[in-house]
Structure formats: C-alpha cells, structure tokens
Fold:
Amino acid sequence: MNTITRLSQFGFLAVNGRDAKTFMQGYTTCDVEKLSERENLGAICNLKGRMVTNFRIASTDEGLLLRMHKSSVQDTMEFLSKYIVFSKAELIDVSDHWHCHGVVGDTDDADENSIRLRVNDTRYELWSTSSLGDESDAEDWAAADCADGLAWIESATADHYLPQMFNLHELGGIDFEKGCYLGQEIVARAQYLGDLKRALHHTRFEQSLAVGDELQVTGRPIGSVVSVAAHDALAVVANPGENTIAAESPDGESLTFTAIAPT
Structure:
C-alpha cells in the first residue's frame, strides 16, 4: 500500500540557462555535477557560512530545480540575484508550476514530466507539474521528516545556522571535495577543526512549540526550535556531545532533547 500527499509548504526555484550549473556550483554545498535520485540535498550559504536556504535539487533540461521551504524562495532569489548578473542564467520562482508530493511506498503517478527523489528506503518526494493527492497526511510527513532529522530553513531561521547544524554533513548535503563556494571556508573549518558548538536534536512535546522558540536550562538560553510537526520538534542546541539534554520550552514544559544520530 502507498500514500501520496501534497506538500504545499514547499516551493520551487528554477535556475535556467547555459551557465546554470556553473553558476550554482559556486554557491551550493553540494556538487551539482553529482546529482542523482539519492544524492539530492544541499544548501546555499552566506559569506559567514550560515544557510540562506537548504533544499533538494535535481537537474532539468533547462538547468536546475531546487525545492525549498516556500517562505525561502523569494529571499533566495534576492540573495543570488546579486551574483548572477554576469552569468548566462536566470532565476525563476516556479512554485505555481511545480508541486511537491510526499510518497510512502511506490506509485504509478510518476511520468515524463515528474521528478522522483529518494528521502530514505521507504519515502521519496515526487515533483510534478500536476497536483496529486491531498494534504490530509501532510502533518504526518512533516513529523516523519523530524524523526529523520530533516529540518528546512524558513525565512525566520535564515542566516543563523551552519549546514552542519542541520546535520547536512551526515545526510550527504555537503561535498567537502568540490571546489570553492560561498561560505566554504567557514563550513570546512567547523568540520575539520571541531568548531561546531551546536547540533541538531529531536524532542517530543505535549503543550506548544513554534519555530524560533528559545529553549533554556535554568534560565540560560541553549538553543532554538527550527522545525515543528504534530508533537515532534527539532532544535539546534548547544550540546556538543551525543548525550540527551533536558531543557524548558517558553511555556515551561520540561523537554528531553536527543542528538540526531549519524546516518
């Protein structure tokens, strides 16, 4: 049995033109020459190595297609537009043309106008120019993302986090052997010199949490929530080890955070 769910929280940015891949190679943590159904995660960073957005990405006949949180599409276009002016490439918000779906199991809904990208052994994303299914299971999909340690940069969390703080180094979203890209020096230093002070953690909650909520231990801030779905949440927390850590939500709920295990 399979399920297909429309994921309207996501939008799409197309980078089209002769220089699309060459241009984006200088701004993505992933290697755009190595993209595949399984190798499809990456991020765009600012000069300080903080993520402007993170995404799934695929090649198209016109160039590249990036799926990211819908709130990040315009911000990412504005960021990249400063650099693309001398390239034979263009940035297009195609969120009204492409639709993102979450699929559990297998499906016959894919066609020549669809793109299929693997999430794990049981889940994948199906991008289509047609809208399929409904959104009844969208919260379950987002909760599964949380359980898998997948968080997506939103406008509220942009420019705050290194890609490693979203576990992209464990998920295959950073290629440490590719050439230079914006923010690479900071990202590499955090990886090889052990400068990563904060990491992604998972928790379950009963009361309420929202993206951006500050977490505290005895009144001292230790991190912030970056993703919420149903009663699951992900937070970037100052806890360099792999031990669990207790913290309080803004409502005073006691929460236990567990570091996301390496994949």
Q: What stands out?
A: The longest strand covers residues 220-229. The chain has two domains: 3-162, 197-259.
